[in-house]
């Protein structure tokens, strides 16, 4: 299961990443990935599957020359690869089709990044977070339209309108425990990973995003040191 661009692994100095993962520590590779158009193209390939440069150009409002160049650069660093033309695809056989290469890709933790690498990662994360939020809001609007008929009445039922599980919570952890928590999350994603041939009918690509960060330091006169952390129950809308 690939980690989407923008994620940094919780790996301490001297530790290895989980089995089968790859750490992207080459600065040139990170710079290639941080290019905003390439991130958008990768996201499109991840969500919608294989595409041609012309398909990506139309979908993203770019010109074919630009998408062709960026696809070659992404392929150069192993993020995309050419595939056979899908049987159901229209068009002529001379078109080059590309897909996002799956894999568990990690970035060096902040403590091991050079000053230049931190600048690149900050830029990469900035665009990745913005793209995630934009896509999430877009899907929320689509869900509203599917469940809203004429004059605000309830529209046709769609079981996937319930496919927006959401959770907010807090837990008290040591840093090693947080490392372990993150690896268990990745292992859970990998447990559900399967070849297309084994995917049952009706399955859809589901985008997952993991976000965890330390709570801000509380003023000593407002929160006692031994006070337990609050916890919100998961999920406004579990699927």
Give the helices and strands, then pairings.
Blueprint lengths: L20 E3 L3 H8 L1 H13 L4 H8 L3 H13 L3 E4 L13 E4 L3 E3 L8 H32 L28 H17 L48
Parallel strand pairs: 1-4
Antiparallel strand pairs: 2-3
Task: Note down, in words, how this protein is organized.
The chain is mainly alpha-helical. Helices cover 38% and strands 6% of the residues. The protein has 6 helices and 4 strands, in the order E-H-H-H-H-E-E-E-H-H. It has helices at 27-34, 36-48, 53-60, 64-76, 115-146, 175-191; strands at 21-23, 80-83, 97-100, 104-106. Helix 1 runs parallel beside helix 5 (115-146) and helix 3 packs across helix 4. Mean pLDDT is 81; it is low at 1-18 and 228-239.
């Amino acid at each position: 299961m690939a980690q989407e661009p923008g994620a940094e692994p919780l790996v301490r100095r001297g530790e290895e990443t989980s089995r089968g993962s790859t750490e992207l520590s080459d600065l040139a590779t990170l710079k290639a990935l941080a290019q905003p158009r390439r991130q958008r193209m990768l996201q499109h390939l991840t969500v919608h599957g294989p595409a041609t440069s012309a398909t990506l150009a139309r979908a993203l409002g770019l010109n074919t020359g630009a998408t062709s160049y960026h696809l070659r650069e992404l392929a150069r660093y192993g993020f995309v690869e050419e595939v056979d033309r899908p049987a159901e695809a229209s068009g002529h056989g001379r078109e080059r089709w590309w897909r996002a290469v799956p894999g568990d890709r990690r970035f060096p933790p902040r403590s091991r990044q050079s000053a230049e690498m931190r600048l690149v990662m900050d830029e990469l994360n900035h665009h990745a977070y913005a793209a995630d939020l934009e896509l999430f809001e877009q899907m929320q609007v689509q869900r509203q339209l599917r469940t809203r008929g004429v004059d605000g009445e309830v529209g046709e039922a769609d079981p996937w309108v319930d496919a927006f599980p959401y959770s907010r919570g807090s837990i008290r952890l040591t840093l090693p425990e947080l490392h372990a928590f993150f690896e268990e999350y990745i292992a859970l994603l990998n447990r559900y990973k399967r070849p297309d041939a084994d995917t049952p009918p009706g399955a859809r690509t589901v985008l997952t995003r993991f976000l965890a960060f330390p709570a801000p330091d509380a003023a000593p006169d407002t929160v006692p040191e031994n006070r337990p952390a609050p916890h919100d129950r998961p999920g406004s809308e579990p699927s």
